[in-house]
Amino acid sequence: MTRADLSKDPHAVAAMFDNVAEGYDRTNAVATMGLEKLVWRPATLAEIAPRKGMKILDLAAGTGASSVKLREAGAEVVSCDFSVGMLRVGKRNHPELDLIAGDALRLPFADGTFDVVTISWALRNVNDVTVALQEMLRVTRPGGRLIILEQSHPTWKPFRVVYLEYMMRAVPAVAKVVSSNPEAYEYLAESTRAWLPQEPLARTIEAAGWTRVHWANLTGGLVAIHRAVKPV
């Protein structure tokens, strides 16, 4: 199966990402018109504020591109993803990274292992968002933080309409040129349209047991960074 439907069957989603692994970073750069690399990733890095000795779980790390900057700041980073294809590309490109295959619904880590858990553009792809958030809570130490970067809903309605049209039409068209599996990007566009707006996602995070939940819109709400703290 090359394209997962919105039931988010784990095996189908993993296979989809395996199929796009080789060109994933390149396709994202083109589809986001450089915003991912120039704006969204740096803002997320600043929110995480990695430093020497900090233990960070980079969940759904894909090819490890996001983990590299965390490691360069001196943090101890574990890069976890359930797509073996993504991890293979990551290991080839960044052999210094600690890459581990794992399911967000059953994380292979002990309780209270990490100071920060971060996940980017992947929470909307898990089969059970609440269970995934509870697993992230489990492996975070008391007082530790959660940082989520995810597609979101633009705050200005006319912009939201234009954006959704772009996601549904332009992104798959771009993927046909630069991706090894353009059908996957139709799924990713559909999953973006079906995803939770900022406030409902914040409530879902709180319901999973996290506290002090806030979010910051980036680029008019095209994406948002949600942050939360594990109770002490």
Describe the structure.
This protein is an alpha/beta fold and 232 residues long. The chain has one domain: Rossmann fold, CATH 3.40.50.150. The chain is 46% helix and 21% strand. The chain is built from nine helices and seven strands. Strands 3-2-1-4-5-7-6 form a seven-stranded mixed β-sheet, sandwiched between helices. α6 links the parallel β4 and β5. The longest helix is centred in the C-terminal third of the chain and has 22 residues. It is globular and about 45 Å long. The N terminus is likely disordered. One of its GO terms (molecular function) is demethylmenaquinone methyltransferase activity. This is Demethylmenaquinone methyltransferase. Methyltransferase required for the conversion of demethylmenaquinol (DMKH2) to menaquinol (MKH2).
Short description:
It contains nine helices and seven strands, in the order αααβαβαββαβαααββ. The chain is of the alpha/beta class.
Topology, pairings included?
Layout: H1 10-20, H2 24-31, H3 35-48, E1 55-59, H4 65-72, E2 76-81, H5 84-93, E3 98-101, E4 114-120, H6 129-139, E5 140-151, H7 157-178, H8 182-194, H9 198-207, E6 211-218, E7 223-229
Parallel strand pairs: 1-2, 1-4, 2-3, 4-5
Antiparallel strand pairs: 5-7, 6-7
Helix pairs in contact: 2-7, 7-8
GO molecular function: demethylmenaquinone methyltransferase activity
InterPro entries: SAM-dependent_MTases_sf, UbiE/COQ5_MeTrFase, UbiE/COQ5_MeTrFase_CS
Function: Methyltransferase required for the conversion of demethylmenaquinol (DMKH2) to menaquinol (MKH2).
